[in-house]
Design a protein that fits this description.
With 547 residues, the protein is α/β, with parallel strands linked by helices. The protein folds into two domains: 360 residues, Rossmann fold, CATH 3.40.50.620; 175 residues, Orthogonal Bundle (Isoleucyl-tRNA Synthetase, Domain 1), CATH 1.10.730.10. The protein contains 17 helices and 17 strands. The model has no long low-confidence stretch (mean pLDDT 92).
Length: 547
Amino acid sequence: MSSESWLITATPPTPNGDLHLGHLSGPYLAADVMARQLRAEGADVLTMTGIDDNQSYTEALAVREGGTAATTARWFGDRIVRAWERAGLRYDVIGRPDRDPPHREFTTRMFRQLYDQGDIVARVRPLPYCKPCERWAFEAYVAGACPHCKARSCGNACEMCGRPNDCADLVDPVCTICGADCELRDCERLYLPLERHAEALREFWDATGMNGHLTALCHTMALEGLPEIAVSHPATWGLPVPVDGFDDHRVYVWFEMAAGYLAAGADGEPRGVWGGRRRVVQCFGYDNGYFHALLFPAVMRAFDPDVQLPTDFVSNEFYRLDGLKFSTSRKHAVWLLDMLSSVPADHLRLQLSWDRPAVEETDFTWESFRTRVYDGALTRWHGWLAALTRRCEAADACQLPPGSSAPPGPTTTAERLRKHTDDTLRAVAHAYRPESFAPDDALDRLDRLARDAAAAGADLERLAGLPGGPHAAFVEGVRAELAAAAAFAAGLYPVAPTMAQQLWTALGCPGSVEKNGLAWRHHDRTGTKVGDLADACSLFLPHGRTR
């Protein structure tokens, strides 16, 4: 059993719409799968996420629809939490700023401390202003061409290249509410100069696991000179800035998120969950990479030099729908709650784990979902379990003397299957761990194990009916196949927990697969009536209800 201690975070979503498959394919499913694997190994794991209530995108939606930001945040926040639950995602801590007074108190304290110690400074710089709307245009309220990659971008950060901007440097900025061209006006705001933290950030990057795309972003920004980031904006929605002269400003929501990570579940004390010997893993999309890899560590370390920073980043690229990026604002999405009303959560988790956009964008289609899950994996797995049931019945009928086993000689089929099973489960566990996270590889290996176990069983089944034949070799093979099925359940558990538990229980294995899955080797006896495995495991039936 593992003695490791982990904190795994998934970046809080913006409550300006429902969750869609693009959201689930990234940080939320990844955090849940990793946590389930680590818990199954006996590790102490705390998972954390939240709702990004004070995002300007939430207020912008309310402005367009004639509502209030608070009502919008609460409505979609509740639906997001419900979608997580329906998808089988378990989080120990879900930060809700609008319901958590310590969040406000901690963010205010952190902002004021950084200002007092000189990490936050005042600057007068241009900021887009929409004259028809009589509103300063920042973040969700302004769009133009990114100054770095020229793609269309909203203010403060570009989703495509991942680089921050200062809003005024957008090319041809326009108001996203009324569509009017914005004019530039001088505005005094509070900034956090990242360059003063450059050396500490480089040391942090060298010690933190991350993929090549994120590493390239960090070092490219460092080579060009790290920018100053506006951490206050003139607005009415969000947390007030605790600095005299900025009464009409609100704390930049991404600064607030850094504080929220430390405050959530810790009563405002960062070492409550971020200290000690915990390994911290953060899961997020690449479009949020700059915040997690540059802004957050600079803010956290400036606030508390001894705070435990992340040891691993698990990021993902965009997941697309019919070739285009999932988009809440453009309503181009498959909404999670809608899909879960007709598709079992485990089936969806299987597809998204296989299709996860780890290092390049991938594309969801209904045809690929049906082909891979229903016509492919579930058909094979269900067929294997049905055949294994038949072989168990035949093995029970052999009536071998107690202690009988296959005669000594060359390596038997059963021995080869047991070794293959053991090797597979070790590789699967490695593929679920944060430092080597590749759930598609884990599922490919499990699928291969199911194919090979079925083939071995079918081959040995020819021995069962031979008069006076080598029944012991057949029975030994069935026992190895039963152990492979128990191992399959243990390996499947992080991605498809309900399916895994169904199989574990149908095999006669005790308790939960999460707590007892490491003991899969002991569940290989044919004398225990396992019943009809295929019928008992209803979620393995290949009759998915997809359009």
